[in-house]
Write a structure and sequence with these properties.
The chain contains 15 helices and 17 strands. It is an alpha/beta fold. The strands form 4 sheets. It has a 6-stranded parallel beta sheet, sandwiched between helices. Strands 11-10-9-15-16-17 form a 6-stranded parallel beta sheet. It is about 35% helix and about 15% strand.
């Protein structure tokens, strides 16, 4: 895989460099509520611009279903990128139409442009190879060189991620190089004890990574909505908590395998419960109760790990040399159910371990709950991509960057 430094050595001055970024940031109207993914790609864009490249930044945002939708416009992202670069960023109002063609053709050396949301064109995400290739052909007309730096999208077989690199000289940006380097530390020559903390809502989203990590991890901690399927698999009442009944046989198999392999599988010992899901808009007090994890009332649902579990998980993380954490421990968006996620984050901050926050909601939680990002060894920009890499899958966007 060619690196961006090799590309810069060859020279990019005057060349149109297409940077596929992941600028899929959360928006409240036109206000960006977390600019972490924009900041993550700034080093690549800035370095190319400094070297005299004519930089064309492209990304997806949300799921606009192949048609233009103002709610998913990248215009606010272009403005924020300009602020971070302290330079004008030109915005093209389409992807491969008149605006994009004019804007990219008019760039001066060192100038940066952002083209509109790639998913406004159905060819970007099409499962039809010919339709996807046709869109990639049009994108290729805009540029001379391709730089892949959208790690959060490399697990997608999309036109700008998979097909476009085949049409242009290509290299990996700084963010992708960093992300892959970190993931190799989690899969090759791992420093032990290696502890994995997994949360989030659906156990089905994590079974693949659990399957793979049973061969590598020393200890696995389970929280979030997925914990209730594990508790149910052990025969416990989980009330009205989130439950994937169809996954119980697989969960039982993994618990048995973990025991056979000597992998410590740690489940909550207490949880916070309430009669209804909290109001995340008003954040009105929810008045949760703390109950033992094996004694959840039939009319209650679990919404966070309890205080005893917080202390238990902190102790299980304290001696780790390597930690991978993906997924919150509870409904962290509500202050009454944020303590479990805070406890895991604080345990990573307090630990000398090589600590990786695996993107997605866990990365958002770190920022929302006020933690210093520098207190963690790495915060990934791609939750889904990180998980698929750890599952041992081939990621289309990385494969496309291989020479």
């Amino acid at each position: 895989m060619k690196t961006i430094d090799e590309l810069l050595t060859e020279g990019v001055a005057g060349k149109r460099v297409f940077v596929r970024a992941d600028l899929n940031v959360p928006l409240d109207g036109a206000t960006i509520t977390d600019d972490g993914r924009i900041r993550a790609v700034v080093p690549t864009i800035a370095k190319l611009a400094e070297a005299g490249a004519r930089v064309i930044v492209a990304s997806h945002l949300g799921r606009p279903k192949g048609a233009a939708d103002p709610a998913f416009s990248l215009a606010p992202v272009a403005r924020r990128l300009g602020e971070l670069l302290a330079a004008e960023v030109v915005f093209a109002a389409d992807t491969v139409g008149e605006s994009a063609t004019a804007v990219t053709a008019g760039l001066a050396d060192g100038q940066v442009a952002v083209i509109e949301n790639l998913r406004f064109n159905a060819g970007e995400t099409s499962k039809d190879d010919a339709e996807r290739a046709a869109f990639a052909d049009l994108l290729a007309l805009l540029a001379d060189v391709y730089v892949g730096d959208g790690f959060g999208a490399v697990h997608r077989k999309h036109a700008s991620v998979y097909d476009l690199p085949a049409r242009l000289p290509h290299a990996a940006g700084y963010l992708i190089a960093t992300e892959v380097g970190v993931l190799k530390k989690l899969t090759e020559d791992v420093q032990r004890p290696y502890v994995v903390a997994l949360g989030g809502s659906k156990v089905s989203d994590k079974l693949g990574v659990i399957d793979h990590l049973l061969e590598k991890a020393d200890r696995i901690l389970i929280g979030g909505g997925m914990a209730y399927t594990f508790l149910k698999a052990q025969g416990h009442e989980v009330g009205t908590s989130l439950l994937q009944e169809d996954q119980i046989p697989a969960v039982r198999e993994y618990l048995a395998r973990a025991k056979d392999k000597g992998v410590e599988f740690v489940l909550p010992v207490d949880v916070l419960v309430a009669g209804a899901f909290p109001d995340l808009r008003t954040k009105a007090p929810a008045h949760p109760a703390t109950v033992a994890a094996d004694a959840i009332p039939a009319d209650q649902l679990g919404l966070d790990i309890g205080p005893e579990t917080c202390r238990l998980y902190a102790s299980k993380l304290a001696d780790a040399a390597t930690v991978f954490w993906n997924g919150p421990m509870g409904v962290f968006e509500h202050p009454d159910y944020a303590e479990g996620t805070k406890a895991v984050a604080q345990a990573l901050v307090d630990s000398p371990a090589f600590s990786v926050v695996g993107g997605g909601d866990s990365a958002a939680a770190v920022r929302i709950l006020g933690f210093d990002e520098k207190a963690f060894s790495h915060i990934s920009t791609g939750g889904g991509a990180s998980l698929e890499y750890l599952e041992g899958k081939t990621l289309p966007g990385l494969a496309a960057l291989e020479d």
